Inverse folding.
Protein backbone atom coordinates (compact mmCIF):
# COMPACT_ATOMS: atom_id res chain seq x y z
CA UNK A 1 0.00 0.00 0.00
CA UNK A 2 1.40 3.44 -0.87
CA UNK A 3 2.38 5.67 2.03
CA UNK A 4 1.82 9.39 2.20
CA UNK A 5 3.34 11.81 4.67
CA UNK A 6 1.31 14.89 5.60
CA UNK A 7 2.03 17.74 7.97
CA UNK A 8 -0.89 18.73 10.16
CA UNK A 9 -1.06 21.75 12.45
CA UNK A 10 -0.70 20.93 16.14
CA UNK A 11 -4.09 22.54 16.81
CA UNK A 12 -5.88 19.88 14.75
CA UNK A 13 -4.49 16.91 16.68
CA UNK A 14 -6.96 17.01 19.60
CA UNK A 15 -9.87 16.97 17.15
CA UNK A 16 -8.26 14.22 15.10
CA UNK A 17 -7.67 12.13 18.22
CA UNK A 18 -11.31 12.52 19.33
CA UNK A 19 -12.60 11.55 15.89
CA UNK A 20 -10.27 8.55 15.76
CA UNK A 21 -11.45 7.39 19.19
CA UNK A 22 -15.07 7.69 18.07
CA UNK A 23 -14.30 5.45 15.08
CA UNK A 24 -12.21 3.18 17.32
CA UNK A 25 -9.12 3.69 15.18
CA UNK A 26 -5.70 5.25 15.39
CA UNK A 27 -5.44 8.80 14.02
CA UNK A 28 -3.63 7.40 10.97
CA UNK A 29 -6.28 4.73 10.39
CA UNK A 30 -9.06 7.28 10.84
CA UNK A 31 -7.51 9.64 8.28
CA UNK A 32 -7.05 6.79 5.82
CA UNK A 33 -10.69 5.68 6.22
CA UNK A 34 -11.98 9.23 6.08
CA UNK A 35 -10.07 10.15 2.92
CA UNK A 36 -11.17 6.91 1.24
CA UNK A 37 -14.81 7.57 2.16
CA UNK A 38 -14.67 11.17 0.93
CA UNK A 39 -13.07 10.19 -2.36
CA UNK A 40 -15.60 7.43 -2.95
CA UNK A 41 -18.47 9.82 -2.27
CA UNK A 42 -17.01 12.43 -4.63
CA UNK A 43 -16.98 9.92 -7.47
CA UNK A 44 -20.65 9.08 -7.06
CA UNK A 45 -23.00 11.45 -8.86
CA UNK A 46 -25.58 13.00 -6.59
CA UNK A 47 -28.95 11.31 -7.03
CA UNK A 48 -30.69 14.48 -5.93
CA UNK A 49 -30.13 17.46 -8.28
CA UNK A 50 -31.49 19.86 -5.64
CA UNK A 51 -28.91 18.62 -3.14
CA UNK A 52 -26.13 18.99 -5.70
CA UNK A 53 -27.27 22.55 -6.45
CA UNK A 54 -27.39 23.38 -2.74
CA UNK A 55 -23.88 21.98 -2.24
CA UNK A 56 -22.62 24.13 -5.12
CA UNK A 57 -24.24 27.23 -3.60
CA UNK A 58 -22.78 26.51 -0.16
CA UNK A 59 -19.30 25.91 -1.56
CA UNK A 60 -19.47 29.21 -3.43
CA UNK A 61 -20.69 31.11 -0.36
CA UNK A 62 -17.97 29.54 1.74
CA UNK A 63 -15.43 31.44 -0.38
CA UNK A 64 -16.71 34.79 0.95
CA UNK A 65 -16.72 37.76 1.05
CA UNK A 66 -17.68 37.84 4.69
CA UNK A 67 -19.32 40.72 6.53
CA UNK A 68 -18.37 41.80 10.03
CA UNK A 69 -21.50 42.28 12.12
CA UNK A 70 -21.08 45.00 14.72
CA UNK A 71 -24.74 45.46 15.73
CA UNK A 72 -26.53 42.10 15.91
CA UNK A 73 -29.95 43.61 16.65
CA UNK A 74 -29.78 45.93 13.63
CA UNK A 75 -28.61 43.02 11.46
CA UNK A 76 -31.55 40.88 12.59
CA UNK A 77 -33.96 43.72 11.87
CA UNK A 78 -32.50 44.10 8.38
CA UNK A 79 -32.85 40.36 7.70
CA UNK A 80 -36.43 40.36 8.99
CA UNK A 81 -37.23 43.31 6.73
CA UNK A 82 -35.81 41.55 3.69
CA UNK A 83 -37.68 38.33 4.53
CA UNK A 84 -40.95 40.21 5.07
CA UNK A 85 -40.54 42.04 1.76
CA UNK A 86 -39.95 38.76 -0.10
CA UNK A 87 -42.90 37.13 1.64
CA UNK A 88 -45.17 40.02 0.62
CA UNK A 89 -43.93 39.80 -2.96
CA UNK A 90 -44.59 36.08 -3.14
CA UNK A 91 -48.11 36.57 -1.75
CA UNK A 92 -48.84 39.16 -4.46
CA UNK A 93 -47.74 36.75 -7.19
CA UNK A 94 -49.76 33.85 -5.79
Amino acid sequence: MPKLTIDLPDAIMPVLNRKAEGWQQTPEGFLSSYVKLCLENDEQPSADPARAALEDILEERDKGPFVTITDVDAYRQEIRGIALKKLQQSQRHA
